[in-house]
Amino acid sequence: MKKLLVLLLVLVAVVTLGCQGQEEPLPQPMEPIVKSEPTEPLVVVSEQESYEIATKYLEESNEFAKLSGRNLRYMGSETLRCPYCWTFTYWYYRLSPETNASQKIEAMITVNSGKVIAATFEERK
Questions:
Q1: Is the pTM of this model over 0.85?
Q2: For residue 87, what pLDDT is reported?
Q3: How far is CA 70 from the centre of its chain?
Q4: CB 3.0-4.6 Å disulfide test: which of 20, 39, 85, 114 passes with 45?
Q5: How far is CA 117 from the centre of its chain?
Q6: C-alpha 84: how far from its chain's center?
Q7: Stretches in the chain below the pLDDT threshold 50
Q8: Alpha-carbon distance 33 to 27, whole Å?
Q9: 119 in Cβ contact with 61 (< 8 Å)
Q10: CATH classification code of 47-124
């Protein structure tokens, strides 16, 4: 019995001494998440209005107007994952500035809340 009591006292002493000086710092409180307000109010623009904006942008662009674009064809639209965002795809032909040969061009115009935010023009065969 004495051995058991001594063993228990030694065990308590070891655990107590082993825990001294190893205190973990308290966790710091997290900073609150602040949601910022949009810098511009959201503008509601329909897909039809956005299509008209994209078409006008394309027809007035250097790629189309100044390089003799012709036979403009609307190919379709894709709804994007942001409010009032669409990408409109067009095909047309233009004269190559280097060779005067006809080139088929695919134009992709992205409109977000009534503003053109991206335009790409790629030659297709």
A1: no
A2: 97
A3: 33
A4: 114
A5: 12
A6: 14
A7: none
A8: 17
A9: yes
A10: 3.10.450
